[in-house]
Amino acid sequence: MSGPERITLAMTGASGAQYGLRLLDCLVREDREVHFLISKAAQLVMATETDVVLPAKPQAMQAFLTEYTGAADGQIRVYGKEDWMSPVASGSGAPAAMVVVPCSTGTLSAIATGACNNLIERAADVTLKERRQLILVPREAPFSTIHLENMLKLSQMGAVILPAAPGFYHQPQTIDDLVDFVVARILNLLNIPQDMLPRWGEHHFGVDD
């Protein structure tokens, strides 16, 4: 199996709930164990942007997402925002990679400054301090100087900043195609197989001068 077997997936209150849900589905299909975190704001955005309304309690949410994605029992683990005993809160138990998608600029700022006011921020802090893979997918426009400075700081710490900005060279026909572009880029960074998006030049055999 290529790529990490255990991944922390966090969703925060920026627009783009479809990215997080699609990534969750892909990780489940690739038999990864997903440690799922979501902010209250992200739940509100999700209900606005999709037809998915998550239960409030972690246990009920875990059961819902397991059925929604067709995951095996225990494959998705959901933790509350102050569950400090969860594996993601410690370097000794945290997965090898973490993705925050979508990543609000407030969460971006908190991670950049080392704030640990909730489990999402703590999990990201653990990922950075343990020198593990942290992928942040901000969805904001335009970016302020503060946003850009925070991204630079995080990039210098080793995080990957992957803006939710789909390309068009694959000639997307639907919104799902645009979502898949960003999710495929995340999976490529994680070194997890994906068949949603061909790599640039993958089917290129050269042209005559």
Summary tags:
six-stranded parallel beta sheet, Flavin prenyltransferase UbiX, FMN, UbiX-like, EC 2.5.1.129, transferase
Can you describe this structure?
This protein has 209 residues and is α/β, with parallel strands linked by helices. Helices cover 40% and strands 14% of the residues. The protein has helices spanning 17-29, 40-49, 58-69, 105-113, 119-129, 145-157, 175-190, and strands at residues 6-11, 33-38, 76-78, 97-103, 133-138, 160-161. Strands 3-2-1-4-5-6 form a 6-stranded parallel beta sheet, sandwiched between helices. Helix 1 links the parallel strand 1 (6-11) and strand 2 (33-38). The longest helix has 16 residues, at 175-190. 40% of the residues are buried. The model has no long low-confidence stretch (mean pLDDT 94).
Brief sketch in words of this structure:
The chain is α/β, with parallel strands linked by helices. The chain is built from seven helices and six strands. A six-stranded parallel beta sheet has the order 3-2-1-4-5-6, with helices on both faces.
Shape: globular
Main sheet specs: 6 strands, parallel
Mean pLDDT: 94
> What is the helical fraction, as a range of percent?
40-55%
Estimated share of beta-strand residues:
5-15%
| First-last Cα distance | 41 Å
Radius of gyration: 17 Å
Q: In the CATH scheme, what's the topology name? A: Rossmann fold
Number of strands: 6
Helix/strand class: alpha/beta
Q: Low-confidence stretches at least 5 residues in length (pLDDT < 50)?
A: none
Write out the CATH superfamily name.
Flavin prenyltransferase-like
Count of DSSP-assigned helices = 7
Q: What is the CATH class?
A: Alpha Beta
What number of domains?
1
CATH architecture type = 3-Layer(aba) Sandwich
Task: Give, in order, the helices and strands.
Answer: EHEHHEEHHEHEH
Give, in spatial order, the strands making up the sheet with the most strands: 3-2-1-4-5-6
